[in-house]
Amino acid sequence: MTTAIAHPNIALVKYWGKVPGADNIPASPSLSITLDTLRTHTRIETSNEDLVIINGKPVDDPKISKFLMRLRQVHTIPPLTIDTDNNFPTGAGLASSASGFAALITAINSHCQLGLSHEDCSTWARRGSGSAARSLCGGFSTLTEPLWHAQTLLDPGMWPLHVVIAITDTSVKSVSSTAGMERSRLTSPFYDAWLASTRIAYERARTAVLARDFNGLATIAEASALNMHAVMLSSQPPLMYWNSGTMAAIQRITGLREQGLAVFFTIDAGPQIKAVCLPEASVTVERALRETPGILGVTTAGLGQAARVIHA
Ligand code: DP6
């Protein structure tokens, strides 16, 4: 039996849109932070037939089946029992597919002795889910052309930011990221402008991270999240991922920053809010979000390590 662990990552410059065709190539670069306290734990065992168990329940997951089918076109992989669990809500906009595919390829690579390099694992993780490539890295990571495998920009200790995650709804989202971004590509009048602005945001965010420029990063990251949601809202039919708790949290975080606290928000394809802050601000941010109407729960993470095998 082989066990691997991977953490979800939160994009500060978002990926929302693919190059049409195979291989799951993003249409624009992205930059993210990997979290530490949230994690996916995946155990793999050779068995008589494939069995996928997520959070204790056997499932038929088309994304995982497709991923295994592609992997088997290139590598010899026996039937496997894949038993995976998340210590956070699954499919609710908290990047469970990112940590899921990062843990899966890490575990399979070790268990089946595929001998894949870090770059190869990143490419396979990306084929499973674009954002998963970034969970192969710890700290700050980037996913960009021409090779589209993720690279570490800063290790976690080099700029140890905190992320306060405010949960506003634990249900599984109604439209997946894969379906949502295809809808945006086909229908949003803002899609091309979104891609062009993201290329610029990516370069600026990279510079801000390397310079540890918190305020610069805050402006770029909030604009990236809001621009992505503008593209979502302008898709047909519209993609509305926010609820009233999301909006209340945005207003609270904006107010805290106006008072001089080092914090900014980001939101993915779901209603949860992530408040990124300097470590000294996180207790105040956590307290403020706990008191905000519509917030069901709050948890704080630091920056996490890369995906890894913990038992082989
Ligand atoms: C909003 O990586 O889940 O979280 O490649 O289709 O699996 P697929 O999409 P996925 O999309 C992530 C979207 C996002 C932004 C981001 O993480 O960059």
Write the layout of secondary structure elements.
Blueprint (H helix, E strand, L loop, with lengths): L1 E5 L2 E5 L16 E5 L5 E7 L4 E4 L2 E3 L2 H13 L5 E7 L9 H16 L6 H11 L11 E4 L7 E4 L7 E6 L9 H11 L3 H20 L3 H20 L10 H15 L4 E4 L6 E5 L4 H9 L6 E5 L6 E4 L1
Parallel strand pairs: 5-7
Antiparallel strand pairs: 1-4, 1-14, 2-3, 3-8, 4-7, 5-6, 8-9, 10-12, 10-13, 11-12
Bound molecules: ligand DP6.
Describe the structure.
The protein has 312 residues and is an alpha+beta fold. It has 2 domains: 156 residues, Ribosomal Protein S5, domain 2; 144 residues, 2-Layer Sandwich (Alpha-Beta Plaits), CATH 3.30.70.890. The protein is 37% helix and 22% strand. The protein is built from 8 helices and 14 strands. The strands form 3 sheets. The chain has a 6-stranded mixed sheet with strand order 6-5-7-4-1-14. A hairpin with a 7-residue loop joins strand 8 and strand 9. The structure holds ligand DP6. The site of ligand DP6 has 15 residues, from helix 4.
